[in-house]
Specification:
Elements lengths: L1 E10 L2 E11 L3 E6 L6 H8 L7 E6 L2 E2 L4 H6 L1 E4 L11 H11 L6 H11 L15 H13 L5 E5 L7 H16 L3 E5 L3 H7 L2 E6 L2 E6 L1 H8 L7 H17 L4
Helix pairs in contact: 8-9
């Protein structure tokens, strides 16, 4: 459902993403992990069409992002770490605007009411988005990602700033979306959540893939036992990658 092939992104002379390739299958949640500055957000923004890649290929639901941007984006939803909603719309108007943009008004009323209730936004439905707290804006972005029939959903640190009930609802909705065949890519520093939620893990550092696989595959790669946590594996694999990069060339 989602394919990223040899993605590279330079910001002037700085290489932020260096030949990253991966895929996310139908009905799969892939966790994107890495230290600060590893290139995670650049990857997500490139897939969303916000950042223009320097080179490489991205396919969303079979549509090449460069050659068929309209249909690729119609299949996609993106929840950024810091949403920038239209503040002069009401909450309800904002959600309706997103549904209109994706031509899904036929399913809007029932879906909107359910999502507003699940994320405790029902009482805010007629208030301007500008009056919402940061956490409420984050929940509004989540609601907008589920208001249309996205086949691929990208999340950048989706649980930061959301209250415990909202976080639980989001995780339940992600699991339900996976069960319906949706492909989900989630970037997070919350390793315990990634360990419970994700089917596979992709670890990147300094713009390069360090390791990829299921928890058991990462345990084998890190040469750690079955009781090792994702945090243990993440720290060991990224430290080894840093040592390899800094090793002198013989």
């Amino acid at each position: 459902m989602l394919l990223v092939d040899e993605l590279r992104k330079y910001y002037r002379t700085a290489l932020a993403v260096d030949g990253v390739s991966f895929s996310v299958a139908d009905g799969e949640i892939l966790g994107l992990l890495g230290p600060n500055g590893a290139g995670k957000t650049t990857i997500l923004r490139s897939i969303a069409g916000i950042v223009q890649p320097t080179s490489g290929r991205i396919e969303v639901a079979g549509h090449d992002l460069a050659a068929d941007e309209r249909n690729a984006k119609r299949s996609l939803a993106f929840v950024p770490e810091t949403p920038s909603p239209y503040e002069m719309l009401t909450v309800y108007e904002h959600i309706r605007f997103i549904a209109m943009a994706y031509d899904t008004l036929d399913k809007f009323d029932e879906r909107a009411d359910s999502l507003l209730e699940r994320f405790d936004l029902e009482e805010k439905r007629n208030e301007l988005v500008a009056t919402l707290s940061k956490g409420m804006k984050q929940k509004l972005a989540v609601v907008c990602s589920f208001i249309h029939d996205a086949q691929v959903i990208l999340f950048d640190e989706p649980l930061i700033g959301i209250d415990p009930k909202g976080a639980r609802e989001l995780k339940n909705m992600m699991l339900a979306a996976r069960s319906s065949g949706c492909s989900i890519l989630v970037s997070t520093h919350m390793l315990d959540t990634a360990e419970r939620l994700c089917d596979r893990i992709l670890i990147i550092d300094k713009g390069k893939v360090v390791a990829e696989g299921t928890l058991s595959e990462l345990q084998d790669r890190a040469q750690m036992g079955a009781d090792a946590t994702l945090e243990d594996m993440f720290l060991k694999l990224t430290e080894e990658a840093a040592q390899d990069e800094n090793a002198p060339v013989s």
